[in-house]
Recover the amino acids of this structure.
């Protein structure tokens, strides 16, 4: 397998060298060029690409010789070193295809010289920055222990990595090259997200409804469609020095009534979809060691004392208990059931022996169960199981341990009240993605420490298991990832740790959509204003780039950035220097001691907190910046004798579950997650399967 991989690397670099030579010959041919300076730009660009390729070939060969040592096992190839090489190859393949097109069509009447030169220059810039990432990864291999993807001792190395992120140019990855490493079917979606975010930044903070803001953003997005360089520069500015409330506001727009309505249309209809408000009362649960004894479970109290816990019950079929008066007294009216459980013609099913308790992702700071309804509805049908999704309190208003307390309380309440949820809870599975995957693990650890029943299994999709900015090869991807830049990741982690914000008691239910559900009668005026702004942006396109951006934390961005050189940060080979950004980032180090708490970063948990956990099924993506979190945690569980599987899917970004209806690749990944959940409910179905399946 490794020999074939090395041959592929050699073939790619051979093709790259040939394309560069062919283009230089064509562009420098005997006939006079019709494009003048554009031809000179192309020649200079191809020579730079050729230089990068020649320098990178031995670097890639060195990774190919050792990166199998960092896999979970031989059947599960996946780690950050492999990913960096894969991303580099994707970039080179794009350059090769574009180079062949230029060499073949340069003399054609319809050849767009300026467009092709600009696109090749963009990929040349991306190649330069990827070269820097591979050099950084080489230092990680050199400084870390054999087979280890990160180090906890060398904090200086991690600090230097953060410094390097702060100064390196990243806009090229958000413009013409956006999403080149992902599945082609996802690239239009990623472009839409990036354009929407930079457009939303122009209207953020204005006095208008959430839908009005979205409409205005839509109409100001035109310039970012036709000018990828402007789009990349603006997106870099936003993510370099992020206002966390802007980030929360943007992602919460996806929960507006109109947009969430599209989700319901595209996903399976369900008989039950109700939100619940569970009052903060003490619970009693039997001890796992002796069910004749019980222990008291207190309601969540961190930061502002006891408060209710909000949940959503989703069930494809109406089951006994789900129409009870006791449950309906807990229900809310923000969306209500899709089909009323009271309708006499709806046939009730007996309780399911299974129960799925779900914790949503969103970096601990954004989204709710409503954001994740699309795949939860499908799972409820495919698995024939009621799903209880917990709307835990979000940071920065509710940092650790509030979310963990609420999720643990919800789990305990579900065990005691499964009869209301349409289940007998003979087998219970916890499922979650990203931050939700972290909470699945930590809730199970808390159940162990309290001595109550642990769930029968966990399905964690791309979980965050190390909530620090410690360097690992996959985390180097935060420099190029449009969905998880390091600036965003660090803000979310610090918000959850409570290290950068003052906690306040929410005045209303978190996850409430009241701000987005305002009267949309202003929509017409919003559209008019948006059209006016769009026209003005074309009359003066530069003003958008240099305006004081409302999506940026000006307290940080306004501080003069010191001149940074590679000598101050990390060492590169002589003659090489990555491109630097004009807008330096301020990334608050994740140095708060809370980050090292095992209930925050479960990969740091001692053996005593891991032994006794149920089987853990981890589904990760090869292109996710948190891939190494999954690999490291899976290795640690295996080392202490805990049952664990790791599946690594290809070509998808972090958060692929929320994109499950975008393309067949994301749907396939969602189906894998559902299959792992079914293995928890029917463990006999997994007999004969490999202990660490891979679907790469």
């Amino acid at each position: 397998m490794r020999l074939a991989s090395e041959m592929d690397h050699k073939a790619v670099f051979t093709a790259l060298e040939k394309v560069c030579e062919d283009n230089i010959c064509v562009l420098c041919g005997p006939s006079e060029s019709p494009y003048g300076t554009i031809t000179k730009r192309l020649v200079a660009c191809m020579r730079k690409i050729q230089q990068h390729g020649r320098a990178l070939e031995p670097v890639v060969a060195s990774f190919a010789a050792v990166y199998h040592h960092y896999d979970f096992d031989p059947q599960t190839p996946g780690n950050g070193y492999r990913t960096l090489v894969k991303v580099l190859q994707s970039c080179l393949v794009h350059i090769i295809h574009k180079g062949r097109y230029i060499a073949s069509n340069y003399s054609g009447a319809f050849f767009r010289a300026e467009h092709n030169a600009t696109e090749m220059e963009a990929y040349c810039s991306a190649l330069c920055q990827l070269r820097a990432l591979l050099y950084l990864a080489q230092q990680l291999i050199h400084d870390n222990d054999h087979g280890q993807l990160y180090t906890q001792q060398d904090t200086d190395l991690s600090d230097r990595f953060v410094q390097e992120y702060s100064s390196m140019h990243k806009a090229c990855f958000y413009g013409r090259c956006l999403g080149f490493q992902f599945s082609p079917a996802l690239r239009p979606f990623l472009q839409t997200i990036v354009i929407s975010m930079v457009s939303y930044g122009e209207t953020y903070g204005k006095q208008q409804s959430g839908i009005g803001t979205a409409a205005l953003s839509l109409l100001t997005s035109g310039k970012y469609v036709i000018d990828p360089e402007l789009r990349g520069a603006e997106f870099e500015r936003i993510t370099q020095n992020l206002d966390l409330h802007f980030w929360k506001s943007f992602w919460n727009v996806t929960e507006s009534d109109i947009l969430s309505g599209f989700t319901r249309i595209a996903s399976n209809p369900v008989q039950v979809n109700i939100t619940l408000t569970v009052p903060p009362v003490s619970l009693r649960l039997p001890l796992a060691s002796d069910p004749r004894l019980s222990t008291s479970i207190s309601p969540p109290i961190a930061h502002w004392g006891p408060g209710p816990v909000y949940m959503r019950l989703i069930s494809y079929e109406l089951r006994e208990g789900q129409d009870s008066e006791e449950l309906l007294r807990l229900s809310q009216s923000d969306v209500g059931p899709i089909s009323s459980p009271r309708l006499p013609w709806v046939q009730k099913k007996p309780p399911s022996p299974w129960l799925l308790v779900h914790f949503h992702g969103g970096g601990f700071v954004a989204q709710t169960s409503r954001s994740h309804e699309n795949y939860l509805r499908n799972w409820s049908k495919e698995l024939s199981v009621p799903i209880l999704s917990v709307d835990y309190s979000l940071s920065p208003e509710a940092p650790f341990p509030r979310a963990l307390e609420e999720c643990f309380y919800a789990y305990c309440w579900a065990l005691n009240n499964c009869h209301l949820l349409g289940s007998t809870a003979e087998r219970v599975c916890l499922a979650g993605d990203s931050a939700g995957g972290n909470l699945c693990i930590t809730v199970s650890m808390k159940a162990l420490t309290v001595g109550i029943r642990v769930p029968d299994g966990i399905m964690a999709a791309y979980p965050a298991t190390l909530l620090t900015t410690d360097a690992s090869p996959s985390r180097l991807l935060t420099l190029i990832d449009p969905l998880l830049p390091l600036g965003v990741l660090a803000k979310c982690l610090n918000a959850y740790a409570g290290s950068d914000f003052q906690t306040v008691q929410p005045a209303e239910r978190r996850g409430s959509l009241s701000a987005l559900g305002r009267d949309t009668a202003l929509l017409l005026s919003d559209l008019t204003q948006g059209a006016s702004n769009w026209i003005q942006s074309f009359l003066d396109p530069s003003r958008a780039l240099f305006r004081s951006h409302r999506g940026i934390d000006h307290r940080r961005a306004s501080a003069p950035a010191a001149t940074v050189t590679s000598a101050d940060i990390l060492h590169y080979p002589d003659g090489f220097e990555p491109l630097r950004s004009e807008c330096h980032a301020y990334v608050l180090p994740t140095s708060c001691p809370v980050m090292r708490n095992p209930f925050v970063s479960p990969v740091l948990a001692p053996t005593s907190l891991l032994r006794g956990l149920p089987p853990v099924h981890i589904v990760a993506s090869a292109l996710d910046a948190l891939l190494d979190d999954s690999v490291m945690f899976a290795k640690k569980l295996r080392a202490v004798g805990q049952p664990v599987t790791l599946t690594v899917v290809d070509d998808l970004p972090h958060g692929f579950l929320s994109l499950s209806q975008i393309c067949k690749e994301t749907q396939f990944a969602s189906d894998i997650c559902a299959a792992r959940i079914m293995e928890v409910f029917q463990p006999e179905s997994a007999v004969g399967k490999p202990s660490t399946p891979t679907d790469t």
